[in-house]
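User: Sequence in, structure out. Go.
Assistant: Echoing your sequence, followed by the structure tokens.
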Amino acid sequence: MAAFKHAKFTFKGGTAAIKALVGTRVRVRQRMESALLFDPIQNTQKTTDIKLGAIGFVTNPHPQQLDMLLVAFPPDGSTAPATLAALTRTNKFSVIVVNSPTFKEWFDIESV
């Protein structure tokens, strides 16, 4: 079973720290209501809810706002695959935008 640590103890923030986490599994510490979906093509302001305990993956820093992370989750709280690559191959995932302070407080990072 994977061990998770609260992000505030391990994540220092900044683009380099975000890039170091790309592909890392993360877990939501509390329900996220109306999380902004990342939609660079349509540029909509759609939102989604992320369930408490949902597991996703850090994908990248936001391309325009480098203090923001992009985090991918499987649909409707289904079980996350073992890797980010496996999740992207399913072609069924949502990517949300999370600012660094929120990430530190609301997420756990899987320890390797």
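User: And one key feature?
Assistant: The first strand starts at residue 4 and ends at 6.
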